[in-house]
Amino acid sequence: MAFLELQRLSKRFGDVVAVDGLDLSVEQGEFVSLLGPSGCGKTTTLQMIAGFEDPTGGEIRIAGRDMANVRANRRGIGIVFQSYALFPHMTVEQNVGFGLEMRKVPAGERAGRVAEALELVRLGGLAGRYPRALSGGQQQRVALARALVIKPDLLLLDEPLSNLDAKLREEMQIELRNIQQSTGVTTVLVTHDQTEAMALSDRIAVMHRGHIVQISTPFEAYEFPKSDFVSTFLGKTNLVAAAVEGRDGDMLRLRAGDVALKAPAGEGAEGDRVLLSIRPEKIRFADPAEAVIRGHVKTGVFLGNQWLFQIDSPLGELLVVHQNAGRAEARAGEEVGLAWEGDQVRVLSGDDHG
Ligand code: ATP
């Protein structure tokens, strides 16, 4: 049995179904992110695991034990919130030691464990400061130390990095991942930031309307999204409506308007209308002999590490194409050929409820 098990977990607030029969298993030591848009039920799920909200239905098990009648402070859980929620009138040391004091850990042992937790988050020198004299990033580390000092069996993180600026957030992502790996604590992160989920997680659970529509490694989720929802939520993609014409071995033959396309067989039988996903970085400029389609460049924008082109194409929508940085291979108004490998096209089920 997995370390954390959620079975058919539900939560209603009056008429609103916030969490709708959600199943999730998290292995010991694993880092899993709940990723989804605002209102999909991520925070409510985390609050139920923590014991701050009672489920309307379903079960939560931690290490095999049913949590139905276990109070929040008895669940062995450390939590970090977006707001940090530090006590303003307490020093860093007192903030971090608070949970140990509540658990009646003797003062001598407490001091050692607080020092250890502060070292872990690299705040050793700031034990005597008050929160108001700390930067946002430092406050965030105090909150993390406070959650870790109790040596929790499970660490819950609710958008812990979203108050930090982009550069600091990136640094903290790497640090958080290192700390999680060095402590081995089973972790569930709530985020709406796909880059953050990808950088931190062993597996990502993509949520939509109260349940999980896909759970997989970051690579699988990005490369093999099951639905248009997952495909567009995890990065940019081009969605193309097509009809299945037949099958040649492992590949489907498809048609989108006048354009013949190929995609790996899996979903879709002859006559079906399907949605295809083609990631912008899989498309390249190509000479006429090689091109799958021709189009006109509408815009080309240089972003430093890559070029981003929008192309008027016979596939309907404006096609987005990313190219590695270097000299621009095309200019606005120019007619270009575009090519991609058929095995890079994904056929989506289009079913959000996966
Ligand atoms: P966000 O990223 O904006 O925090 P979320 O995915 O965490 O969103 P939740 O906060 O879990 O989503 O909310 C899920 C749904 O439940 C939303 O429609 C929200 O309005 C509703 N909801 C959450 N808490 C309550 C509450 N205490 N009373 C009534 N409705 C609630």
UniProtKB/TrEMBL annotation:
Record-annotated ABC transporter domain positions: 4-234
Molecular functions per Gene Ontology: ATP binding; ATP hydrolysis activity; transmembrane transporter activity
UniProt keyword terms in alphabetical order: ATP-binding, Nucleotide-binding, Transport
Pfam families cross-referenced by the UniProt entry: ABC_tran, TOBE_2
Biological processes annotated in GO: quaternary ammonium group transport
GO CC annotation, single: ATP-binding cassette (ABC) transporter complex
Family: Belongs to the ABC transporter superfamily.
Database matches in PANTHER family: SPERMIDINE/PUTRESCINE IMPORT ATP-BINDING PROTEIN POTA (PTHR42781), SPERMIDINE_PUTRESCINE IMPORT ATP-BINDING PROTEIN POTA (PTHR42781:SF4)
Protein name: ABC transporter ATP-binding protein
